[in-house]
User: Which sequence fits this backbone?
């Protein structure tokens, strides 16, 4: 039986039953509450000076909903959305609002950007495309179910993943459907899906069944499939192996982690497993030229050697603080937590270097790095741009 902790209480809130006749979340978590408290903030002697360059308020944020609305950053713009349908564009350097549009949609995924578009998915099974320069609505497309991931666009095609296990390829100019790929979906999954990754003419997606699938971007045909995790245990809860965090690519090697399975390195050309490690992660990972950085299900942040998966360091003083996936910022790794703090960790040994609070409502989505600036969007709608120096 799984140990109950604050992280697992959040997981309970993130579960969704997909098939009729299944047990409810309440059934799985019946019994005496034995929830471990989150770790207190550790003492810190800052070795890094973090400055807020600008901040803005993006509507109501994601309020009390369990959705990861992540800012999308281009070279000169930052796009952000709230759950009530507001989509906004800001100057990346100054934070000046360029445009804001109330779409009147229940936004649940995104925003993504590409092909001159800003893209969001909705709880009502729609994909909305706005003009990146003006915010004018270009089109709306119906898909099969709720969209909790970030739509991606490349080579004239928009790709979106839905919670029922489907991937859609849509024409970027009008939203018409090009292809659909259907994966098998377990009876019980986490409420959260990894976003499709577009790479060298391929669509690569982490799935709720613990597998990775690579498709041809043009026609959606399956190129290869790799198993990151196999379901184990007797109950549906114990058999959860969702790849719900984002997958990342470095030097043609794909890195992905599953909720109750493994972290794996996979060759993007063949789907061959290069190495695997028994690390469970719902939040997800990031990667640089040397290491893979991952937040596990106890909110420990680990660095693994990218070549063989050997553990380089582990920071365990944030346990049960519902820590986000990491972002690499220069010589540091940055994660957010449920109280809205951003923690800067030294990339070489995981030691704390700085701490800044950006949103009292907490952080769910990982921060995003572009050049020398880190962008973070909190659940309360606080969008913050930060820079750090020794």
Assistant:
């Amino acid at each position: 039986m799984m140990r109950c902790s604050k992280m697992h209480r959040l997981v309970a809130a993130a579960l969704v039953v997909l098939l009729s006749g299944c047990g409810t979340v309440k059934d799985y978590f019946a019994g005496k509450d034995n929830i471990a408290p989150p770790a207190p903030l550790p003492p810190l002697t800052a070795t890094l000076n973090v400055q807020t360059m600008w901040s803005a308020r993006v509507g109501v944020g994601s309020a009390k909903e369990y959705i990861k609305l992540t800012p999308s950053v281009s070279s000169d713009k930052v796009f952000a959305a709230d759950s009530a349908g507001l989509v906004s564009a800001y100057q990346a350097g100054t934070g000046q609002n360029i445009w804001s549009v109330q779409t009147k949609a229940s936004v649940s995924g995104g925003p993504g950007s590409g092909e001159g578009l800003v893209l969001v998915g909705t709880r009502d099974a729609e994909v909305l495309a706005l003009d990146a320069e003006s915010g004018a609505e270009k089109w709306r497309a119906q898909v099969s179910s709720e969209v909790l991931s970030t739509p991606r666009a490349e080579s004239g095609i928009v790709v979106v993943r839905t919670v029922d296990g489907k991937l859609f390829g849509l024409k970027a100019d009008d939203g018409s459907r090009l292809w659909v790929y259907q994966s098998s979906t377990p009876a019980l999954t986490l409420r959260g899906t990894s976003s499709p990754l577009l790479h060298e003419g391929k669509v690569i997606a982490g799935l709720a069944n613990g597998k990775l699938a690579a498709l041809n971007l043009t026609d959606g045909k399956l190129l290869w499939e790799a198993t990151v995790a196999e379901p184990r245990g007797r109950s549906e809860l114990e058999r959860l192996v969702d790849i719900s965090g984002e997958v990342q690519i470095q030097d043609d090697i794909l890195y992905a982690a599953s909720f109750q399975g493994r972290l794996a390195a996979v060759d993007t050309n063949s789907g061959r497993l290069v190495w695997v490690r028994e690390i469970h992660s719902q939040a997800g990972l990031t990667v640089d030229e040397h290491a893979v950085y991952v937040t596990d299900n106890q909110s420990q942040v680990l660095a693994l050697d990218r070549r063989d998966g050997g553990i380089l360091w582990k920071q365990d003083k944030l346990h049960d603080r519902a820590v986000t996936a990491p972002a690499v910022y220069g010589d540091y790794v940055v994660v957010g937590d449920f109280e809205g703090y951003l923690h800067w960790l030294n990339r070489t040994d995981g030691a704390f270097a700085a701490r800044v609070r950006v949103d009292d409502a907490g952080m769910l989505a990982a921060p995003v790095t572009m050049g020398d600036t880190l962008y973070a969007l909190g659940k309360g709608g606080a969008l913050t741009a930060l820079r750090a120096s020794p």
Notes: The CA atoms of residues 343 and 355 lie 5 Å apart.
